[in-house]
Amino acid sequence: LDCDLYQSTKDVLDKIVLNDGAVLLFDDMTGYEFCQDHQMKAWFEFLEETELDFEYIARTPKGQLAARVKL
Fold it and tell me: How many CA atoms lie within 13 A of 67 on its CB side?
């Protein structure tokens, strides 16, 4: 997901259909000022709302993050 901002990330997550083993790649999860107000916030809200089971599988020093869905 290269949505950068909270609302655009939330919009995508609200409409996404995920299968077991799907991998979500976040381009800007961390690593910049106010990151907790954007993709990270939308992701944590999505997890709380859906109770999605997942595992983090990769993270880069520049803030990219990969999560694998476990259904």
Answer: 18
Mention every residue, 6+ apart, whose C-beta is less than 8 A from residue 17: none
pLDDT (tens digit, 9 = 90+) per residue, 12-36? 999 999 999 999 999 989 989 999 9
Region for 53 from its dihedrals, namely left if φ exceeds 0, alpha if ψ lies in -120 to 50, beta otherwise: beta
pLDDT tens-digit map of 52-62: 999 999 999 99
Q: What's the CA gap between 20 and 40, in Å, rounded? A: 22
**The tokens 């993709």 sit on which residue?**
39
CB 69 within 8 A of CB 53: yes
Beta-carbon contacts of 33 under 8 Å, excluding residues fewer than 6 positions away, are none
First to last CA, the chain: 20
